[in-house]
Amino acid sequence: MMHPETEVRVVNQEIGYGVFAKVFIPKGTMVYVKDQFEVRLKEGSLLLNDPRYKEISDKYSYIDAAGTRIISWDHAKYVNHCCNPNTMTTGYGFEIAIKDIQIGDEITDEYGLFNLEREMPLSCKSKPCRLLLSPNDFEKMYPVWDEKVQAALASFNQVEQPLLNFLDRREQKALMSYLNSGKGYRSVYTQKKTERATRARRSGTRDTDLAIG
Ligand SMILES: [Zn+2]
After folding, report:
1. If you measure from the C-alpha of residue 12 to the centroid of ligand 1, how many angstroms do you get, rounded to a whole number?
2. pLDDT tens digits, 97-153
3. Per 3-state DSSP, what percentage of the chain is helix, strand, and coil (rounded to 5)?
4. Is 46 helix (H, G, I), strand (E, B) or coil?
5. What SS3 class is residue 64?
6. What is the largest CA-CA distance in the chain?
7. Ligand 1 mean position, distance from CA 127 (Å)
8. Of 23, 114, 142, 152, whose CA is between 20 and 30 Å from 52?
9. What is the 8-class DSSP label of residue 2?
10. How far does the centroid of ligand 1 lie from the alpha carbon of residue 128, in Å?
11. 158 C-alpha to center of ligand 1: Å?
12. Each residue of 147-188: pLDDT tens digit?
């Protein structure tokens, strides 16, 4: 679910739709949350091999740490990638504004955190552009992403959080524990899909309690 004060607009003919801020959204605000309404397609779902649906799921979904494809029920699926984004995935099941977002700004994201299965050519307005999004970006870049997320989380309790109620209770607990104590930060690396996550899921144990720090 996207922040309620955002809307879809056409960016241009080449890019198509994007999501824009209708109000000022300060750094530290939750901008997207993986809520209970999201469409979840587990690894191995027959729909993922159905050619009628494949294009849609490739275009509009991301893959979480458990290997599940998530397709947002609302306009969150129209958020575009930027190599210099203003929001970023956290280790807690939501995305956070990593800088102040002004009225009318396009909301952009780091797709490198979405467990891409193949490379994707890029051309961002913001320079420098990596030009190619690679599944290997996660491994290379997560320390930089963590720095940005931690800097944004420092403002979490000082700003309005209209999406907080939709955050999974276990995630809320882990987040509040970190915010209150400064210990037990959960790295964005926990969002990387691993064989371990897939195995854990198959054996019925949860893998969301991995923590770094
Ligand atoms: Zn780029």
Report:
1. 16
2. 999 999 999 999 999 999 998 999 998 877 789 999 999 999 999 999 999 999 999
3. 30, 20, 45
4. helix
5. coil
6. 48
7. 7
8. 114
9. B
10. 7
11. 31
12. 999 999 999 999 999 999 999 999 999 999 999 999 999 999
Tokens of 42: 């587990």
- The 8-class DSSP code of residue 79 comes to P
Structure-token pair, residue 53:
């649906």
Task: Give the integer Cα–Cα distance in Å for 42 and 67.
Answer: 7
151 is written with which tokens?
Answer: 């800097």
Residue type present at position 77: K
Distance, CA 171 to ligand 1 centroid (Å)? 30
CA of 62 to the centre of ligand 1 (A): 18
| CA 190 to ligand 1 center in whole angstroms | 23
Q: 75 CA distance to ligand 1 centroid (A)?
A: 22
CA of residue 22 to ligand 1 center, whole Å: 24
Q: Is the peptide bond before 121 cis (omega within 30 degrees of 0)?
A: no
Please tell me the distance between residue 126's alpha carbon and the centre of ligand 1 in angstroms.
7
Distance of CA 107 to the CA centre of its chain: 12
H/E element, 18: strand 16-21
CA of 30 to the centre of ligand 1 (A): 23
